Amino acid sequence: MKFVSADEAVKLVRSGDTIACQGGASVPVLLQEALARRHAELRDVTITSGFNVHKDPAPFCKPEYKDSFLVNSIFISADQRAHVAAGYGSMTPAFLGEVPGMFRRGEFPVDVAFIVCSMPDENGYCSFGISADIAVAAAEVARVVIAEVSPNIPYLYGDCLIHESKISAAVLCDVAPFAMTFGEPTPIEAAIGANVASQIPDGACLQIGVGGIPNAVLNGIKHHQHLGLHTEAMTDGVIRLMKEGVIDNSLKKVRPGVSVAALAIGSKEMYEYIDHNHTMEFFDVAYTNDPFLIAQNPRACAINSAIEVDLTGQICADSIGEMVFSSVGGQHDFMYGCSLSEGGRTFIALPSRTAKGKAKIVPTLTPGAGVVTTRFQTQYVATEYGIVYLRGKSLAERAKLLISIAHPDDREELERAACKRFGYSFLRLGSGA
Questions:
Q1: Is 269 designated active site?
Q2: Which of 39, 52, 249, 337 could in theory staple to 23 by disulfide, Cβ–Cβ 3.0 to 4.6 A?
């Protein structure tokens, strides 16, 4: 590889280009900063990325750069959210598992890929490290691939490799993955986790996310047997269950014996553990999020969350009213795939209220809210007050079940809304009919 400075490397970007940036815990911040320094000489450069855990505003997200850089995100994250909400960027809706195909077919053109990768091995292959997701396809189709290359990036197996000959310019640096740690679940998170865990069978193949509720679910299944992992995100919680033998992948049909993921987000210790670890493989999301591949694993279980759930079981997970907060991500991919699995189950897990006391089970979604999972797909919904199963239930029955796990102080209002909306079909349920 030819090593150059970040400022030299980004000279390969032209006005009018579309740049796809690697995300997760491997955001190419050095390249983004160098790109932002070129703002005066560039125009109409579109920048896209998926899920990012980096918290600081992206360097190109400044109002004064609006004619130089346009954010067109696939998944709006904290580093770009305020910029997009202010009208300086937008989001392209897409199921995450379909994004690599959109890149490869040219439906979403990619001219330049910004990636973060490991040092090359003896055969000249670098690993995309902890974020294969959309980066693999972006680097495959881009005219120019610019890489931050660091000895601190884990070397992972799967299809997350790129030969050094494919890298147009490389910046040698000492960047490390963004480290995140989570404390013990709160009492509310613990209760939600226990409710979900009660419905996960031995031998399940898990898709689970990042945060307090997923960690609580993992705590609740620590005595399960022969679990498998086919997920988007590898976390400290699942690593713990691997070490303890709870996740052994022995009953999986897709890559048995191996944990499968598209990215990893966690602590420094976790990154060290997964480095050169043959018990896990990382793939782009066209593979991990393929619903028909997911469905091949028996007892596949998807655990996701929501911003709001209405009384019919519609799940909003991407927006707060009209304000787009994130995107669909992989929720649909796994909710659909797991529903097709033999013995598969899907879960929406959320607290009954926000931290500010606003109800999350609501009569109707906030005007402008997006439906990520339709009421035709929703199976289990869990809060700290219980877990209910909606599949096969009428609209009135769903309302009754969801009200039973809403915050007690919200139930009277929800009952009135359900009576008004569903009439006698709801009222008769209260009489035991």
A1: no
A2: 52
Contact 327, 75 (CB under 8 A): yes
Which residues, listed in sequence order, are joined to residue 207 by a DSSP beta bridge? 302
pLDDT digits (tens, 9 = 90+) for 99-151: 999 999 999 999 999 999 999 999 999 999 899 999 999 999 999 999 999 99
CB-CB contact of 114 with 19 (8 Å): yes
- Only one residue has tokens 């400075």, namely 5
Cα 173 to Cα 236: distance, rounded to the nearest angstrom = 26
CA distances from 93 to 88, 291, 318, 336, 405 (A): 17, 18, 10, 17, 31
- 205's tokens: 């193949």
CA distance 345 to 124: 42
| Contact by Cβ (8 Å): 167, 126 | yes
The second-level CATH assignment, the architecture, of 187-428 is: 3-Layer(aba) Sandwich (3.40)
Statement: residue 421 has pLDDT above 90: yes
Token pair 């091949």 is found at 296
In the chain, where are the structural domains located?
Answer: 6-172, 187-428
pLDDT-wise least confident of 19-23, 67-71, 324-328, 333-337? 324-328
Q: What architecture (CATH level 2) is domain 6-172?
A: 3-Layer(aba) Sandwich (3.40)
145: number of Cβ within 10 Å: 23
Q: Which two tokens stand for residue 228?
A: 């498998």
| Alpha carbons 174 and 166: distance in angstroms, whole number | 21
6-172 against 187-428: fold identical: yes
List the catalytic residue out of 98, 164, 232, 281: 232
Q: What angle do CA 236, 198, 273 make, to 5 degrees?
A: 15
CA-CA distance, 125 to 165, in Å (whole number)? 9
Collect all residues with Cβ–Cβ distance below 8 Å to 365 and sequence separation of at least 6.
308, 310, 314, 316, 371
- Judged against a pLDDT cut of 80, whether residue 433 lies above it is answered with no
Cα(237)–Cα(220) distance, rounded to whole angstroms?
Answer: 11
Average pLDDT over residues 159-177: 95
3-state helix, strand, coil in the chain (%, to 5): 30, 20, 45
